[in-house]
Design brief:
Blueprint (H helix, E strand, L loop, with lengths): L5 H15 L14 H11 L12 E5 L1 H12 L24 H15 L7 H9 L9 E8 L4 H19 L4 E5 L6 H8 L5 E10 L26
Antiparallel strand pairs: 1-2, 2-4, 3-4
Length: about 230
Amino acid sequence: MLENNPRIEGDAEIVDEAILSRRSVRAFLPDMVEDDIIRAILAVAARAPSGTNMQPWKVYVTKGESKQRISDAILNSGIRAEKADWDEYRYYPTQFFEPYLTRRRANGFGLYGALGIGRREVDKMRAQHDRNFVFFDAPVGMIFTIDRRLNQGSWIDYGMFLQNIMVAARGRGLHTCPQAAFAPYHRQIRPVLDIPDEEIVVCGMALGYEDTSKPENAFRTDRVPLQEWVTFSE
């Protein structure tokens, strides 16, 4: 029991704090993150479990000019996010339904409300969404890929790897924002990073130090109570 083992209790508090403080930060300071820190985070994250230890992840770390080239390629493509073709995989259902529709709307209204963007201010909403493609000004942008021959089990493994990155970043005082928004722009990203055709772009991720002065970073999502989604059986 935790209460009988102070060391374990202390460890639990540290781990829990890293998990609970992880959130999608959408405004970063320009302060650079050293390569050694990035490598340490990725090395720790790679301890994620994967079926038969296949380790299906591949990561392209971008900074400076290469990151800017990704941003330029997407923002100059003329392809609006609502028209982007999710031709490699689909992140969301074709038709949203409850309870997921209500949760999605609450998230969007909450974020735009924090930014003072009204429900009919479509241009401002688009401009905020486009900030995905500059990695919300984070100094580090990562693009993640997976071999297209792998199956759903490896995608489950990939999710655990991504979560490890975000938690390990918190342990070092850094924040992240996982970004599926990059996936439909794989044609723009591939030539910049020389990504081979056999790899699917899974998502991107911003990494850096939070800009606490920005209103979007004051926004917090909630979570559904356990009793609504957990069943105990004996």
